[in-house]
Amino acid sequence: MTLVILACVVLMVPMLILNHQRNALLQMDANAKRMAKQKYVEYYLDKTDRLTLDPDRLGQGEAALNALALGHQIAQPGMEHIDLLRDSEISQEAIRYVANYDAVLPFSVLGLQHLSQQVVASRRAWIGADGNRWSDGPGEGTVDDPIVYVSTRDTDVFHTTRACSYLTHDILEARGEDMRTLRNKFGGKYSPCATCRPNLSMETVYYTLAARSYHTTPSCRTISSNVQDMKRSEAESYGKHACVRCG
């Protein structure tokens, strides 16, 4: 019987550690999301010259204060020596919380009393920065290799502008008040886009038959989400050719 109980405890330890990590990650991610929103306010104030902030001091101070508070929030029985100060970073563009801690074992295993664990949560600040600017994505392009736009649908054409009519041909126009009665092809009602925030009093709004929202402009990113940007050389390597209208 003792061996059975011991085996059950051993099997439960990984599950307890995973549960601690999940709960800690939820708290850290929620905090990082709040900080990401606050960064937009700071960015706006800085850009409008209404408030000047020292980015280095601000980041260091925020990281320290938030890490101290967050350490108490994520603390759970079985977690010891929680350290969010060593590796956490808060900059003008990103928030990254790293929690290093010791997961206490219920009994000593070969003299081992705990396991070192780490939980990481990160968010990009809401300042309009391109999310994939550090990846192998298209970047900004150059004069010799500019950014072009392709439809994610199966086409062999690239475009030099998002506004090309071949990309937007399925975008329809209507009066704002007409959106009360219009239905999409699935029979559902249209609602205002949360990004561009149109209203029923507008003279012209834009929508597609397969979507659920209407928009103030055909260039709203949510209505043109089927358009992907890439460098021209990359598009050509996929066998795509220039649009006869805009290219």
How would you explain this protein's 3D organization?
The protein has 2 domains: 123 residues, no CATH class; 96 residues, no CATH class. Helix content is 31%, strand content 25%. It is built from 4 helices and 12 strands. The strands form 4 sheets. Strands 1, 2, 3 and 4 form a 4-stranded antiparallel β-sheet that branches. Strands 11-5-6-12 form a 4-stranded mixed β-sheet. α1 packs antiparallel against α2. The radius of gyration is 26 Å and the shape is elongated. It starts with a helix and ends in a 5-residue tail after the last strand.
What is this structure's SSE topology?
Blueprint: H1 2-47, H2 55-74, E1 79-83, E2 89-90, E3 94-109, E4 112-124, E5 147-151, E6 157-159, H3 165-168, E7 172-174, E8 191-192, E9 205-207, E10 213-214, E11 227-231, H4 232-237, E12 241-242
Parallel strand pairs: 6-12, 8-10
Antiparallel strand pairs: 1-3, 2-3, 3-4, 5-6, 5-11, 7-9
Helix pairs in contact: 1-2
